[in-house]
Write a structure and sequence with these properties.
Blueprint: E1 3-5, E2 11-18, H1 22-39, E3 42-47, H2 51-54, H3 60-63, H4 71-78, E4 84-88, E5 100-104, E6 113-117, E7 136-138, H5 142-151, E8 156-158, H6 164-172, E9 178-182, H7 183-189, E10 197-201, E11 215-220, H8 224-230, H9 236-251, E12 260-267, E13 270-278, E14 287-294, H10 297-312, E15 320-326, H11 331-339, E16 343-354, H12 359-366, E17 370-373, H13 376-388, E18 397-400, H14 403-411, H15 425-436, E19 443-449, H16 455-462, E20 466-477, E21 488-493, H17 496-504, E22 511-517, H18 519-527, E23 533-536, H19 541-552
Parallel strand pairs: 2-3, 2-4, 7-8, 7-9, 15-16, 15-21, 17-18, 17-19, 19-20, 21-22, 22-23
Antiparallel strand pairs: 1-2, 4-11, 5-11, 6-9, 6-10, 12-13, 13-14, 16-20
């Protein structure tokens, strides 16, 4: 329905539909004026009230989530009453509605979240969230709520509705100690925060909503004239990034109530995609994080979906899982089980205690060019001892038993080669031998615990290679630990030492299934008569999750699966 403006020599006038909020009007005027500056097209605005504007007394996920602020604008587009609708892209459903399309995605505003708070509640000891204990924080976003809870269990999360200025005023009135808002909205409104304080929230802890900070300029798919005009403000890089983020959300079948963040950012020579997925139910809040760089955002999105897909349908919802682990370890595995829907009780029965290495063994190990590493704890201890000796190991060659150990090396600035199908020592030995080919006898440093499964060293020694053993810590049972009172659907055992420590406590809680990580852990369970035993072939969280889900079977069928 593009009008013509007779006062301007018949130039086109684009009719923009907009909600009546300050932010919606500001965003729409910005787009209209940018298009006008680039093309000479005039504009007029038509305010359209949406269902989301009318319902202000209920949380958004309860009343429909995405689409609440867009459906009426989209209907006006189809009926030809408007030519263009400007949306905050994070509020727009991922799939294009019938007959409509995104005509442009302008350059993106800042993507991060902001804590807006009453300075009377300031407390620098709060860290990322610099407010005092036990305060009330407002947000209507499950993602933001879970991110807050993962950092500060003491804060009370409360739903908050209203536009951006209204939410800020609710902090001024004392209804909330703080609210979490998007930096983009605050910036576009140039909102006066007089009397309030703000803290910028880092995107590694608060991964933004897919499309946050970007605008989606929607029009009819067959309106060639408007599409040509909107092309003048389209930013291809922003479009590639937000398309990847929204693809992750769509392919994981996420919606407004899914606590998922996704951020794709351009880097020198490529892109980085970060995805954070939280558990939807229960406490505490857990997060599984995907982060990867590459040259193709679509390929990064596909990799994220492949990694996180096992969690999407919450295959363990309603299940209870007891995770038996060394103190302070397997945090990632606990997060995977929780995000998959389980109520997780992580029980630390053992602890890793550092030991002082023999000086000659340490010197010999640090003189090696190649290292075999089978745990993140070994990585930490190795680099601690190397730092004390003034030795930089970052350029040495590392073979890691699995991705978690490789990530620990990456955190230290070192790269590692990992088996395509991670397992235990035998799989790592096979991978090392395949990588070496005909290179001849090698000398490997093996930082490890005092007690270690022999397969890795035995297989490499049998192939003619030399192993420099470097014990750096020992596993000891914790004293005064008790089993949880309630029975669990499944108990996950992470190592033979966890089995020894758990059975030493006395009667093991009743469970429908015992899940062992690795064959040696399974054998230890069998020796102690704990059955049925289901063996996860590798310590990779997805493999453990699949084994637990397979062991428990259909939630409607309580009989255990052998």
């Amino acid at each position: 329905m593009t009008d013509l403006d007779p006062s301007a020599g018949g130039r086109p006038v684009i009719v923009y539909g907009t909600r009546g909020s300050d932010l919606a009007l500001t965003q729409t005027r910005h787009v209209a004026e940018t298009v006008a500056a680039a093309t000479g097209a005039g504009y007029r605005l038509e305010i359209i009230r949406t269902r989301g504007d009318a319902i202000v007394d209920r949380p958004l996920p309860e009343v429909g989530g995405k689409g609440l602020f867009t459906a009426e604008l989209e209907q006006a587009l189809r009926e030809g009453r408007i030519d263009v609708a400007v949306h905050s892209l994070k509020d727009l459903p991922v799939e294009d509605p019938d007959g409509l399309t995104l005509g442009a995605v302008p350059p993106r505003a800042p993507v991060h979240d902001v804590l807006v708070y009453d300075p009377r509640h300031a407390d620098p000891e709060g860290g990322t969230l610099p407010i005092g204990d036990g305060l009330r924080v407002g947000t209507s976003s499950p993602r933001r709520a879970r991110a807050i809870q993962s950092l500060r269990k003491d804060l009370a999360i409360a739903d908050v509705r209203g536009n951006v200025p209204t939410r800020a005023d609710k902090v001024r009135r004392g209804d909330y100690a703080a609210v979490v808002l998007a930096a983009a909205g605050l910036g576009r409104l140039a909102l006066d925060l007089a009397g309030l304080a703000r803290a910028e929230l880092p995107t590694d802890r608060f991964v933004p909503a897919p499309g946050q900070g970007a605008l989606g300029v929607q029009c009819r798919r067959d309106d060639r004239r408007v599409l040509d005009l909107l092309a003048a403000i389209h930013d291809p890089v922003t479009a590639r990034c937000v398309t990847a983020e929204r693809s992750v959300l769509a392919r994981l079948e996420g919606g407004c109530s899914t606590p998922l963040g996704a951020l794709c950012e351009p880097l020198a020579g490529g892109f980085r995609l970060r995805v954070g997925l939280y558990n939807q139910h229960g406490a505490p809040a857990h997060r599984v994080l995907f982060e990867q760089t590459g040259t193709d955002p679509d390929a990064l999105a596909a990799a994220a979906v492949e990694r996180l897909a096992p969690l999407a349908a919450e295959p363990l919802r309603g299940r209870s899982v007891c995770l038996v682990r060394p103190g302070g370890s397997d945090v990632e595995l606990a997060a995977w089980l929780a995000v998959a829907g389980a109520a997780v009780d992580a029980v630390a029965l053992t602890e890793a205690l550092p030991i002082t290495p023999d000086a000659r063994s340490l010197e010999a190990a640090l003189g090696c060019d190649t290292f075999l590493v089978t745990s993140a704890r070994s990585v930490d201890r190795l680099f601690e001892e190397a730092a004390l000796a003034g030795v930089d190991l970052r350029e040495r060659r590392f073979f890691a038993v699995g991705p978690r150990t490789a990530h620990a090396l990456a955190d230290r600035g070192a790269a590692a080669s990992v088996p395509a199908v991670p397992g235990g020592g035998a799989e790592l030995a096979a991978h090392v031998l395949a990588q070496l080919g005909d290179a001849g006898p090698q000398r490997f440093a093996f930082p490890r615990a005092t007690d270690v499964q022999p397969a890795l060293a035995e297989r490499l020694t049998a192939a003619g290679h030399a192993i420099v053993h470097l014990p750096l810590y020992r596993i000891e049972p914790l004293h005064g630990v008790e089993w949880p009172g309630a029975a669990a659907d499944a108990i996950v055992w992470t190592s033979p030492s966890s089995v020894a420590a758990g059975t030493a406590l006395g009667d093991v809680p009743t469970a429908r299934a015992h899940v062992a990580i690795g064959a040696t852990t399974a054998a230890a369970l069998e020796r102690h008569g704990l059955r049925p035993v289901h063996t996860a072939p590798t310590p990779v969280p997805a493999a453990v999750l699949a084994t637990v889900a397979g062991a428990l079977g259909d939630p409607a069928n309580p009989s255990p699966t052998r």
